[in-house]
Design goal:
The complex is a heterodimer of chains A (about 230) and B (about 100). Helix content of chain A is about 75%, strand content about 0%. Chain A is an all-alpha fold and about 230 residues long. The radius of gyration of chain A is 22 Å and the shape is elongated. Classes of the chains: A mainly alpha (about 230), B alpha+beta (about 100).
C-alpha cells in the first residue's frame, strides 16, 4: 500500500471546482511526499558527483606525476633509498587526504545548495541516518586499508577503496536516491577486476572515483535537476 | 456500487495528522522533535494532534529520557496502520470514481 502511493505519478491533474478542502489527488501526493521525505534524503545533487569526480581525476593525475618523478629518479640512479620511499608515502597520503577533503567539501556544497532550495534540512533525522549508514562501511574500509599499509602492502589499496566505497553506496541507497545503488555495483565490479591487475591501481582508481562519479552525476542531474 | 467515500476517516482530515501518519507508516519510530522538524509546526499544535491520534488508538507513545531531557517517541499501532491504509484506498477509489 505504501509503495503504491510512493510510486504514483508525480503530476496529477488538478480538477477545479471541488469545494471544501483538498482534492484526493493532492492529498495522496502529500502523503507520498511526506513518506518520501521522512525516509529518504532526496536532495543529493548530481553536481556533487560531477565535482567529486573532477577533483578525483585531478588528484589521480597529480599522483601519476609524483610516481613518474619517483620512478624517474630510480631509473637515473638505479636504486631506491628508504628516505625516498618515506617521502613518497607522505606525499601520496597527503595528496589522498587533500583530494578527499576537496571532494567532500565541494559535493557537500552542491547538496547543501539543493537542500536549501527544497527547504530540506541538511542535518535532519533523515540525513543523519544516511550519513551513519554510509560511514560504517567507509570506516571499516579505512581501517582495512590502514592495516594493509602497515604491512607495506600497497597492491590492493585501490581495490579496497573501490570495493568498500561501493558497499557504502549500496548501503546508503536505502536512505537516499535509489539510483546510487548502481554506482555502488559498478565501483565493486571495478574494484574486483582491479584485484587481478594490481599494477594499474591508479587507473582503476581514476576510473572509479573520477569517471564513474562524473557519469553518475551527469545522469542524476539530467534526471532530477535539469527541469527544476 | 459501494460508496467510495466509506473508507475515509475524519481523523485524517487534518493535514498535520495526515502527515504524522504518513511519516509513521515508513518509520519504525520517530521522536517528537523529528516530527516537529519534518512537519514544520509548533510544539503545542503538534502535541494536540498527536494526542487526538493517540486517543483514537492509532499511535503508541513511548516516553524516555536522553540525559535529563525528555525524549518522547511515537510509533503506529496495528489499528492505525489498518485505518490509514483504508483511508488511502478510499482516496484512490474516489479518483477512480471521478475518472
Amino acid at each position: 500500500m505504501c509503495y503504491k502511493v510512493l510510486f504514483m505519478k508525480e503530476t496529477n491533474p488538478v480538477r477545479p471546482g471541488h469545494p471544501g478542502g483538498q482534492q484526493p489527488e493532492e492529498t495522496l501526493q502529500d502523503i507520498r511526499q511526506m513518506m518520501e521525505r521522512s525516509s529518504r534524503f532526496i536532495s543529493l545533487s548530481g553536481l556533487s558527483g560531477i565535482a567529486a569526480g573532477a577533483i578525483a581525476l585531478a588528484g589521480a593525475w597529480l599522483a601519476g606525476r609524483i610516481l613518474d618523478n619517483y620512478y624517474g629518479s630510480y631509473n637515473s640512479r638505479g636504486f631506491f633509498t628508504g628516505d625516498d620511499f618515506g617521502r613518497l608515502k607522505i606525499k601520496l597520503i597527503g595528496l589522498a587526504a587533500a583530494v578527499f577533503a576537496a571532494a567532500f567539501i565541494s559535493s557537500f556544497y552542491f547538496t547543501w545548495r539543493r537542500a536549501r532550495r527544497q527547504h530540506v534540512s541538511l542535518w535532519g533525522p533523515v540525513s543523519k541516518r544516511l550519513f551513519w549508514n554510509m560511514s560504517v562501511p567507509l570506516l571499516a574500509g579505512a581501517g582495512f586499508i590502514l592495516a594493509m599499509l602497515r604491512y607495506d602492502d600497497w597492491g590492493y589499496v585501490s581495490s579496497a577503496c573501490l570495493i568498500f566505497y561501493g558497499l557504502a553506496l549500496i548501503n546508503a541507497s536505502k536512505y537516499t536516491l535509489t539510483d546510487i545503488r548502481y554506482l555502488g555495483y559498478y565501483e565493486i565490479i571495478l574494484g574486483l577486476v582491479n584485484m587481478f591487475y594490481t599494477g594499474y591501481g591508479l587507473y582503476f582508481w581514476a576510473a572509479g572515483f573520477g569517471l564513474l562519479h562524473i557519469i553518475y552525476g551527469v545522469a542524476m542531474w539530467n534526471k532530477y535537476e535539469r527541469k527544476g | 456500487m459501494k460508496n467510495p467515500i466509506t473508507g475515509l476517516n475524519k481523523v485524517f482530515e487534518s493535514r498535520i495528522r495526515l502527515g504524522v501518519m504518513s511519516i509513521l507508516m515508513v518509520n519504525e519510530e520517530i521522536s517528537f522533535n523529528d516530527l516537529k522538524q519534518m512537519l514544520e509546526v509548533t510544539d503545542g499544535n503538534l502535541a494536540t494532534h498527536l494526542l487526538s491520534l493517540e486517543d483514537n488508538g492509532y499511535l503508541k507513545v513511548k516516553k524516555g529520557f536522553i540525559g535529563r531531557k525528555t525524549n518522547t517517541t511515537y510509533s503506529v499501532t496495528k489499528a492505525g496502520e489498518k485505518t490509514f491504509a483504508e483511508h488511502i484506498a478510499a482516496l484512490e477509489n474516489m479518483i477512480k470514481a471521478v475518472k
